[in-house]
């Protein structure tokens, strides 16, 4: 294992285009050092082993499948890789679209595993 502690790679400074919704997305966002999902549709790419390393070989699209509320109330998006099926939790960014996050959070409630009447 080589330990490269010199500056982070600055290969993709500026913007990238979301492979899912085709919107241009700024690399930097308030609240996160490593932008790893699109703020519009919340889809991600399977590129990291650990956040920000960009060393995973998979590179498939990752679907946002749920919200994880951590201790302290911080939200993370759970992504599932459409190719290899791996799950990953990613911190939300300051400019993630509220409605997209709400839609994702509401998905479980909108599709209960048992009839709502039974509660
Ligand atoms: Zn997108
Ligand atoms: Zn994958």
Q: What can you see in these coordinates?
A:
The chain has one domain (15-112). The protein is an alpha+beta fold. The chain contains one helix and six strands; from the N terminus they run ββββββα. A hairpin with a 6-residue loop joins strand 1 (15-17) and strand 2. The structure holds zinc ion (ZN) (2 copies). Residues 46, 58, 60, 81, 83-84, 86 line the site of one zinc ion.
Topology:
Layout: E1 15-17, E2 24-26, E3 44-45, E4 61-69, E5 75-81, E6 87-91, H1 98-110
Antiparallel strand pairs: 1-2, 3-4, 4-5, 5-6
The structure holds zinc ion (2 copies).
List keywords for this structure.
4-stranded antiparallel beta sheet, binds zinc ion, 119 residues, single chain, two-stranded antiparallel ribbon, 1 helix
Summarize the structure.
The chain is built from one helix and six strands.
Tell me the series of helices and strands, N- to C-terminal.
EEEEEEH
Radius of gyration, CA atoms, in whole angstroms: 16 Å
Q: Tell me, what's the shape?
A: globular
Number of domains: 1
Tally of DSSP β-strands: 6
Structural class: alpha+beta
């Amino acid at each position: 294992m080589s330990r490269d502690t010199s500056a982070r790679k600055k290969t993709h400074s500026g913007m990238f285009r979301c492979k899912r919704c085709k919107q241009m997305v700024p690399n930097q966002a308030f609240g996160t050092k490593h932008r790893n999902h699109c703020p519009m549709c919340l889809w991600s790419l399977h590129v990291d082993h650990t956040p920000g390393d960009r060393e995973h070989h998979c590179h498939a699209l990752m679907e946002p499948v749920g919200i994880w509320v951590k201790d302290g109330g911080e939200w993370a998006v759970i992504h599932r890789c459409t190719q290899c099926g791996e799950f990953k939790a990613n911190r939300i960014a300051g400019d993630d679209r509220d409605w997209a996050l709400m839609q994702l959070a509401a998905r479980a409630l909108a599709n209960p595993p048992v009839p709502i009447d039974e509660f």
